[in-house]
Each structure stands twice: as C-alpha cells, then as structure tokens.
Design goal:
Blueprint lengths: L1 E5 L2 E4 L3 H12 L4 E4 L4 H6 L5 E2 L1 H9 L4 H6 L1 E3 L2 E5 L2 E5 L10 E3 L2 H14 L3 E3 L3 E6 L7 E5 L5 E5 L2 E4 L17 E16 L8 E4 L6 E5 L5 E7 L10 H11 L2 H4 L7 E15 L2 E2 L2 E3 L5 E2 L7 H22 L3 H4 L1 H23 L7 H19 L1 H12 L2
Parallel strand pairs: 1-12, 2-3, 2-13, 3-9, 6-15, 13-20
Antiparallel strand pairs: 4-8, 5-8, 6-7, 10-11, 11-12, 14-17, 14-18, 15-16, 16-17, 18-21, 19-20
Bound molecules: 8-demethyl-8-dimethylamino-flavin-adenine-dinucleotide.
8-demethyl-8-dimethylamino-flavin-adenine-dinucleotide binds next to helix 1, strand 10 and helix 8.
C-alpha cells in the first residue's frame, strides 16, 4: 500500500450527502476528495428520490446549487388518498408551513452537484471503492482505496465523512460500545417501479386497498414512479409490465377514477421499508451523514432531504474547525442532527401506519385495519390532523 496523497476532508460516497458536503467545503476553499465506488454514468442515472422539501431547496439555493432544479423542478402541493371510503385531496401547500415540495429527480440533482463540484476544483474518484478506514480516533484518518484498474492506495486527511449510504463501509467503523445502530424493519415491502409514462394524475396519490398499498408520484412529464406493496422476498422479475399495470389498476380503482397512463417499465426493484439510526453519528474524526447516519423508509420521502440538511450541518462544522480552529460544531454535530432524524422517523412511521394495514383475518389484524381507516378519516375530516400532516410532509 503506497501512501499517495493528503487532503483535508475525505468524503466516501457521491450521493446527495457527499456531493452537497463537497460543494460546501470547496466554497470555503477546503481541500477534499470524494471517493465513489460507482461510475459517473451510474450515479447520474440512478433513479431514486424525487421530492425536495423547501428546507432542502433553500440549502441548495443559498449555496449556488439549485440552478437545475429551479429551471426544471415542478411544484407539488397536493396529495390524494383513495380507498373504499372514496377519494379526498389534501392541499398541503395551503396548510401548515404553506409551502410546497419541488419534484426534481435525484439523478438530475446528483448530475448537477457533480458538475458544480468539478467546477469548484473538486477531486472526485469514480469507480473507486473504499475498502477500509484507519486511525479514526487519532489525528490523521485515512482510507484504503481500490481504483478502477485495481490500483490500491491510501488517502490521508484531517477528517473523514462517511456519506456512503446504508450499506457503506463507514457505518461499520463505529466500534461497538462507542456507538449503537438502532434498526427496524417495518413489516412492509414495496415494489418500486419507474415507468416511461406521463403522470396519470396531478396529485401524489396514495391508494389503500385490501390487496395492499399502491402509490403514484410524478417524476417528470414523461416518467412516473409507482409503488406496490408486495410480500417480503418477492422477486421483482416475477412482475411483468402487464402484471404491474393490472395490479396498479385494481388498487388505484381505475374503474372509478379513470385509467392510468401506461408505458414501458424502466426499472423495478423491491424496497424493504426499514429504518436505522446511528447514535452518535460520529466517532473520533469520522462523521456520518445521509443514509449512513440514519436510514429512513421512503414512505414520507425524507431520505434525500435529510442527506442534504445533515451535509449542510456537517459542512459548517468542518469549516469552523478547519478555518477557525473552532471544534464546537463538530463536537455537537450528532446532538444537532439526531432530534431532526428522530422527528422524521416518527412521521415516516406514522405514514407507514396510515398507508398499510396488516394482512389476515385474525382479530388483531382486523382491529388494526379499522384503526388505519379511522386514521384516514381523521385526516380527511379534522383540520388539526391536516395541519400535522402538512407541516411534517413538507418539513425536514
Ligand atoms: P446514497 O445516495 O446512497 O449515496 C451513497 C454513495 O456511496 C457510494 N458507496 C461507496 N463509495 C466508495 N466506497 C464504498 N465502500 C462505498 N459504499 C457506498 C454508493 O455507490 C453511493 O453512490 O446516500 P446519501 O448521499 O446518503 O443519499 C441518500 C438518498 O439517496 C436516499 O435517502 C433517498 O434516495 C431515499 N429516497 C427518497 N428520499 C427522498 O427524500 N424523497 C423521495 O422521494 C425518495 N424516494 C428514496 C425514494 C429511496 C428509494 N430507494 C431506492 C431506497 C425512492 C426509492 C425507491
């Protein structure tokens, strides 16, 4: 292993967290290297999130990172809920914080952030895997890298940022005893579908059905994200295009509300709705951000937003430490982020219980499904519930 290079901040992962962090550090003239296991083309095409909260848009705007999303993002301010009760709409943009969400596909944001990072003189190593980390509780953390042509080298820095998502290497560096990872599988699995089809409705639509949940979310004028609740362990390849559209039609009750605008399925994959939170989100000179710090189920569309705002908090703390020798932000980083993380987890859990009831005819399952229905009716009828929903749905 050759010790090749030194920088100030080592960033593992070029998702929203690592790229926002890298851009903010470059704006403060701090040297950093982003190491990303995938190719540039891969991360610029990886379809995931689409909804950005006003707080995330503000972070991006204030830091010169919002040109693309301001030009192409679409305002979304209405959700619809369908079920045996009928359909009702909730105009969350007019309630609570009186703000709307911006729809801008995550892969476009990632492409914008990469271009800007390179413009700011950033160093990003695609196709390079971090295989290990060293000296995290000492003065000079380092990471072992394996480059695209199999070259192994070590990068050394003053601080390391683990922005490598839920299955990255960073989270495994927190020694047992120094940190705990709280995890939960929420008992629900989604088939996540990306279709080459225009949105079928204006609103984000959540359908509650005896056969399971179905969701509809616009991504652009030509691409739409759909979700279908499926049993855990389901093979996505068992879901042909025809089967997907058929099941979506049933659960979305197209007989009553009109047909879906169908098109070829571009991507299909399953997501087990789960959560994980690292407490604390730091160890020595390693700081976690984004999904590495805390994974949140996509039920409330908070993951990318938490990644952006935690990266902003970490960037400010690292900038104070590196430019003014002020360590307070770094010492308090985890305490600053955790309340926001647990708040988002709580709302996301509330959403899971709003959208899914347990299967089965036993007394417990039936009771919980009746509670689910009551929760939906409260949302339809009670202003206080609508305000709670609106404030949490658009907030981070
Ligand atoms: P990412 O985006 O996963 O990026 C981590 C990067 O680290 C790289 N990596 C490594 N690189 C080098 N060496 C290693 N050893 C490495 N190990 C990993 C990976 O290749 C990757 O590029 O994490 P980050 O930056 O924390 O961002 C998190 C978000 O991507 C995530 O929370 C959201 O996509 C979640 N999410 C949604 N969030 C929202 O806010 N709104 C949404 O509407 C929304 N919809 C979704 C979603 C996630 C989904 N899936 C696929 C789980 C919809 C779906 C279907």
């Amino acid at each position: 292993m050759v010790l090749t290079e030194k920088t100030q901040v080592l960033i593992v992962g070029a998702g929203p967290a690592g790229l926002v962090l890298g851009n903010l550090l470059r704006a403060a003239d701090i040297a950093c290297v982003i190491v990303e296991r995938q190719s540039r083309a891969h991360v610029e095409q990886r379809g995931r999130a689409g909804f950005l909260a006003p707080a995330s848009v503000r972070v991006l705007e204030e830091n010169g990172l919002a040109k693309g999303l301001l030009a192409a993002g679409q305002r979304h301010d209405t959700c619809a809920f369908r079920g045996e009760h009928g359909q009702f709409e909730l105009h969350y943009g007019e309630r609570g914080q009186r703000e709307a969400l911006t729809v801008y596909p995550q892969q476009l944001l990632v492409a914008d952030l990469i271009a800007e990072f390179l413009d700011r003189g950033g160093d990003i190593r695609f196709g390079t895997v971090v295989t290990g980390m060293h000296d995290l509780d000492g003065g000079a953390p380092s990471v072992d890298c394996l480059g695209p042509d199999g070259e192994a080298y070590r990068l050394c820095g003053e601080y390391a940022a683990g922005c490598d998502g839920q299955r990255g290497v960073s989270v495994r560096q927190l020694p047992a005893g120094a940190a705990q990872r709280f995890r939960r599988y929420h008992g629900v699995t989604w088939l996540a579908v990306l279709a080459q089809a225009p949105p079928s409705m204006e609103a984000v639509t959540y359908a509650v059905h005896d056969r399971g949940f179905a969701g509809h979310m616009a991504r652009s004028t030509t691409v739409t994200r759909y979700y279908l609740q499926v049993p855990r362990g389901e093979d996505p390849e068992d879901w042909s295009d025809a089967r997907i559209w058929d099941e979506l039609g049933t659960r979305m009750r197209t007989g009553e509300y009109g047909a879906l605008r169908e098109g070829p399925v571009l991507e299909r994959g399953t997501v087990d709705l789960g959560s994980a939170v690292s407490v604390p989100m730091q160890y020595g000179r390693l700081f976690l951000a984004g999904d590495a710090a805390g994974l949140i189920s996509p039920s409330a569309a908070k993951g990318a937003n938490l990644a952006i705002v935690t990266a902003r908090t970490l960037a400010a703390a690292l900038t104070d430490a590196l430019t003014a020798d002020d360590q307070r932000g770094l010492v308090g980083y985890s305490d600053a982020c955790l309340p926001r993380m647990w708040h988002a987890q709580e709302f996301s859990h509330w959403m899971i219980n709003l959208l899914h009831g347990p299967a089965g005819d036993d007394e417990d399952a039936v009771f919980l499904r009746l509670l689910q229905r009551a929760r939906l009716m409260s949302l339809r009828d009670l202003r206080s519930h609508q305000d709670y929903f609106a404030e949490n749905y658009v907030g981070v």
